[in-house]
Write a structure and sequence with these properties.
Distance between the termini: 42 Å
Pfam families: Aconitase, Aconitase_C
Strand content: 15-25%
Catalytic activity: citrate = D-threo-isocitrate
Oligomer: single chain
Structural class: alpha/beta
Strand order of the largest sheet: 21-22-23-24-27-26-25
GO molecular function: aconitate hydratase activity
Helix content: 25-40%
Subunit structure: Monomer.
Keywords: Iron, Iron-sulfur, Lyase, Metal-binding
Length: 646
């Protein structure tokens, strides 16, 4: 039996474990990606480890999230990140250079390599024939230091692609179709691998759009082959020497099978407030809109802006609509300017913003309360836009641009002739805002520049043998990391200051949590209870670290999203699931649960029992920690475990 592309990538990088789905494996990491919302903590972790110089082939630190400089906190941290990149031998992408994922694709992505990023949408670079995965910052720090990345061996979900996209349908509709079929947890424990004759109809950047939102399916990663399409892309980026062919063997098999016929797709849209709430655009046509937003890592390509420009060319957007344009890389923006597409967008009434993540992460462009916002972004979780009572729809650039003209949601199929756009024959290659690593001997003399907003990570204690914990929250399904700890302009400037950022923890769910948690902090801590797919969304480790700082010791849910589960383990929060779903009915907010002999129980099996104080009831629970992770948990998390190992 031959191998599929995912299996080839894993086999080439496997350093521990066996390729049996569900078993823990260790992978050698070739490249890493960090951005400024998560990278500050990574750089502090590298400093704490005493790292001399990166051990990866290439690592890059991007500044793309925290671009608003309303005071000194963000620019101070940018200087810190630049000095840390110089000190540890990383590429440094300066503010204004663009969003990490498309810039990495342009300048550093290599077929056949592994990429680990402290951003959940790192999976976007699977479009280049890479195994690209998101992870918590400390996992990325360990990879930069040369340690393997540990993950459960995924199943490989083969998606056979045939046909070609009809007019007015684009790559965003392909991934929305996957979300329509499988919702936000359909990809958990899986790598999605696309193959088949239809791939020749999808450009490298179309594939990026699809791979990017594999994160919204909960997938470990998304993989495309490295074929002639990828070769042509690298050639146009003046990097043809980095190409290598990587395709599935003719007799390759997959653990799961799916078919998508591109020819049968229609324009789709995800309604508020979940990327999995997908319906045909025609079903919501006529809904009034306040905002139409083009850009983000989920639609970062030249054609995504050029097609919008052609749709609005010579016309004016509807009165009262904010038409927000968020370029995703500096070099792509220059091509749009040269080809007059920016002129068309501005002449129609568009608002041009700097190249970066911007409104996708709640950094500006928040919609008005109670008004509908159409966005080509990857997520519409509650409050992520920066507006607490937001109403965000996810759609293609075609749908967003057409709707901007009419002030209401429009099915682009009703517009008539589809404008055609061509990629530039020779796109701009601009590295003026990308700083290359210093040589190792020169890097060692660099001093880290620390502003007043940077605070060290506090020490974590070991896991006690007995715990008595009040349940401070009981939540439902699909709680996202944005709801655990919001992003946006209010919160992310404190990313390097744990005591301050923790004040925003769970405020969207329950704004009394912080004060109640602080009351438990010195009394042994507390627990929370949740439903299915707990912790979906961003890889921000702050969503685990801030609750831990506030005293969270145990999270009990029906099941976890992969990255957040791993982040909880890394910081010594015990992640448990109910052995049977009905067990959740026994627990209520305000109950107190007791664990006795906890350390031995973790080491001796996967089943645990907790007692509900004063109710004469027990709750049967399970953990899925590996032996390595149990040892890590007992020591209070990855930092303590690493120190002892060293």
């Amino acid at each position: 039996m031959g191998y599929n592309v995912t299996q080839k990538l894993i086999q080439d990088h496997l350093v521990k474990g066996e390729m049996t789905p569900g078993e823990e494996i260790g992978l050698k990491i070739d490249q890493t990606l960090t951005q400024d919302a998560t990278g500050t903590m990574v750089m502090l972790e590298l400093e704490a480890m005493g790292l001399d110089y990166r051990k990866t082939e290439a690592s890059a630190q991007y500044v793309d999230h925290n671009l608003i400089q309303e005071d000194s906190k963000n620019p101070d941290d940018h200087l810190f990140l630049e000095s840390a990149a110089q000190r540890f031998g990383l590429h440094f992408s300066r503010p204004g250079n663009g969003v990490s994922h498309p810039v990495h694709m342009q300048r550093l992505a290599k077929p056949g390599q592994t990429l680990l990023g402290s951003d959940s949408h790192t999976c976007a670079n699977g479009c280049m024939g890479m195994l690209a995965m998101g992870a918590g910052g400390i996992d990325v720090a360990m990879a930069i230091a040369g340690e393997p990345f540990y993950v459960k061996m995924p199943e490989v979900w083969g998606v056979y692609v045939k046909g070609e996209l009809p007019d007015w349908v684009s790559a965003k509709d392909v991934i929305l179709e996957m979300l329509r079929r499988h919702d936000v947890k359909g990809g958990v424990g899986k790598v999605i691998e696309y193959y088949g004759p239809g791939l020749k109809e999808l450009s490298a950047m179309d594939r990026h759009v699809i791979a990017n939102m594999g994160a919204e399916l909960g997938a470990t990663g998304t993989v495309f082959p490295s074929d002639e399409v990828v070769k042509n892309y690298l050639k146009r980026q003046e990097r043809e020497e980095d190409w290598k062919e990587l395709i599935a063997d003719n007799d390759a098999e997959y653990d799961l099978h799916e078919t998508i016929n591109l020819s049968e797709l229609e324009p789709l849209i995800a309604k508020p407030s979940s990327p999995g709430n997908v319906v045909p655009v025609r079903e919501v046509a006529g809904e009034p809109i306040y905002q139409s937003y083009i850009g983000s890592s989920a639609n970062p390509g030249y054609r995504d802006f050029a097609i919008a420009a052609e749709i609005v060319k010579g016309k004016s957007i509807a009165q009262g609509v904010s038409f927000d344009l968020n370029p995703t890389s500096r070099q792509m923006l220059q091509d749009l300017v040269k080809d007059n597409h920016i002129a068309s967008l501005l002449s129609s009434g568009g608002r041009l913003h700097q190249a970066g993540c911007n409104g996708c992460i709640g950094m500006g462009q928040a919609p008005a309360t109670g008004r509908n916002s159409l966005r080509t972004t990857p997520r519409n979780f509650p409050g992520r836009s920066g507006t607490k009572e937001d109403s965000v729809f996810l759609c293609s650039p075609e749908t967003a641009a057409a709707s901007a003209l009419y002030g209401k949601i429009v099915d682009p199929l009703d517009l008539g002739e589809y404008p055609k756009v061509e990629e530039p024959a020779q796109p701009t290659v601009d590295t003026s805002l990308l700083e290359y690593p210093l040589p190792e001997d020169e890097a060692k003399s660099v001093e880290l520049v620390k502003g007043p907003n940077i605070a060290s990570i506090p020490e974590m204690d070991e896991l006690p043998d007995q715990l008595e914990l009040p349940i401070l929250l009981k939540m439902g399904d699909n709680i996202s990391t944005d709801e655990i700890l919001a992003g946006g302009a209010r919160v992310l400037p404190y990313r390097s200051n744990l005591p301050e950022i923790s004040k925003f923890t769970f405020e969207i769910v329950d704004d009394t949590y912080y004060d109640r948690a602080m009351d438990t902090k010195e009394k042994g801590g507390h627990a929370i209870v949740g439903g299915y797919n707990y912790g979906q969304g961003s890889s921000r480790e702050h969503a685990a670290l801030a609750p831990r700082y506030l005293g969270l010791r145990v999270a009990i849910v029906q099941d976890f999203a992969r990255i957040h589960w791993q982040n909880l383990v890394n910081f010594g929060v015990l992640p448990l699931t109910f052995s049977e779903s009905e067990e959740a009915e026994k627990l209520e907010q305000g109950d107190v649960i007791q664990f006795n002999g906890l350390r031995d129980a973790l080491q001796n099996g996967q089943d645990l029992t907790a007692t509900i104080k004063g109710k004469d009831q027990t709750v049967k629970l399970r953990h899925t920690l590996s032996y390595r992770q149990v040892d890590m948990m007992l020591k209070g998390g990855l930092i303590n475990w690493t120190k002892e190992k060293a």
